Amino acid sequence: MTDALAVATIIIYAILIQPVFYCLWKHGRHGILGWVALQSFCLLRIIGNAILLHAEATNASNSNALLISNIGLSPLLLAALGFLHEARRARSPSICRRLEWALVIQYHLVVSVALALVIVGVINLQSGIITTTTSVLLKVAAAILIVCWAALVLWTGVSMRKQGRDTSAKGYAEGTKLLYGVVAALPLVGFRLIYAIVSLLLEVNGSSSGFTTSVAAKVCMSVVPEMLATIVFVVAGISTRDMHKTFDGRNGSSRDVRAGTPLVEQRG
C-alpha cells in the first residue's frame, strides 16, 4: 500500500509540475516567488517518494525521505505567499512596494528559521536522539509555522477588502482570481500543517499511537490536501496566465511618462 501510494504520488506530481512550469513561464518575473516555490514543492515530493521507494526495495533507511517529507510544507507556504504578493500588486497599482517587499522578505526569513529547526529536530529523531532539546526545537518550529500560516490568512483577509481600491484598474480582475485561489488553498495548507505538527509531536513524545503509521490518516490529512492545494494554485495560475501584460503595460506607461512622451497619440 505504501509503495503504491508513493508511485501514485510521483506520477501525479510529475504531471502537475508541467503546468506549474507553464505558469512560471507565463507569469514571468512578477510571479517568480510563487511559482518557483511551488515547483520546488513538486520536486521535493517526487524526490522524497523516489527515495522512499528505493529504501523499501533495498531495505535501507528511509530517513532522507522522511526529512524531505517534513520540510516540504515550507515551500507550500512560500508559494501561497508568492501568489498573494502577485495578486496584491495586480489589484493595487499604488501599493507601497518597499513595505510589501520588506514584509515578504521578513516572512521568508521566519519560515526559513522554522525550516532549520525542523531539519535539526527530524535529524535528531532519526538518529535516536530524543532529548528535551529536540522536543523544544520541534515545538518552537511548530509554533512558528502556525503563526506563519495564521499571518498569511490574516494578510489574505486584509487583501480581500475593496475599500480604497480602484476596481476598474487594469489587472484588478486578474489579481482577484489569483487571490481567490490563495483563499481556497489556505484551508488545505492549514489541514496539512496540522497533520505534520501532530505527527512530529507524537513521534518526539514516543507515543505508540497508530496515527503516525496510519496510511489512511496520511492520505486524508497529508497527501490529498497538499495535492488539492497544488491543483488550486495551478488552476488559478492558468486562468491568470496573461497577468504579466498588466505589469508590462504599467511599466511601459511609466517609462513613457518619464521620457516625456505623451500617452495619448497626438493628431495633426
Distance between the termini: 76 Å
Helix content: over 70%
What's the pLDDT, averaged over the residues?
83
Helix and strand run: HHHHHHHHH
Instruction: Report strand %.
Output: under 5%
What Rg, in angstroms, do the CA atoms define? 21 Å
Shape: globular
Number of strand segments: 0
The helix/strand class is mainly alpha
Main beta sheet: none
Low-confidence stretches: 252-268
Counting DSSP H or I runs of 4 or more residues, the number of helices is 9
Write up this protein:
The protein is an all-alpha fold and 268 residues long. It is 79% helix and 0% strand. The protein has helices at residues 2-27, 32-58, 63-71, 73-91, 97-126, 132-159, 172-204, 215-239, 244-259. Helix 1 (2-27) packs antiparallel against helix 2 (32-58) and helix 4 packs parallel to helix 6. Residues 252-268 have low confidence and may be disordered.
Question: Strands, helices and their partners?
Answer:
Blueprint: H1 2-27, H2 32-58, H3 63-71, H4 73-91, H5 97-126, H6 132-159, H7 172-204, H8 215-239, H9 244-259
Helix pairs in contact: 1-2, 1-8, 2-3, 2-4, 3-5, 4-5, 4-6, 4-7, 5-6, 6-7, 7-8
Please give a quick description of this structure.
This protein is mostly helical and 268 residues long. It is built from 9 helices and no strands.
What keywords describe this structure?
single chain, 9 helices, disordered C terminus, 268 residues
